[in-house]
Fold:
Amino acid sequence: MYRVQAEHLARFITSHNLDTFQHALLHSLFKNIGYKLPTQDKQDLRILTHIFSGCNYLKAFQTTIGNVTNRTCDKCDTEFETTEHYLLRCPAFALHRYNTFGHFCIKYPKPDILSSPTLLLSYARRTKYLAFYDTSVT
Structure:
């Protein structure tokens, strides 16, 4: 994740248009691993950018920038609410994870999950937990 975060920051500093920045970041990331983004939708690009950069509305990042003080996941109260926890282990989303990825709990690393933007978008829509998820989008 560090490489993605470094690229995210570098492009953010030089970018004046957030939509162009998100689009460029994701296209370069997926081009490097040999995949094409399945969407041009701004909401989908926002979701994928937040998942891959780690700069999102989950508590681990919000604690880092000073918006909250407790990093523990509100859904399960067992560990810090990181992107990794949300995607791979949170028991509150086990059924959504199973319906999307075919596993209740995913042992890290699982490259087929991270390399499939379609599955990540499906999971974000199923959970309806991320603050940037728009419930009007189906």
User: Anything to note?
Assistant: The CA atoms of residues 27 and 117 lie 11 Å apart.
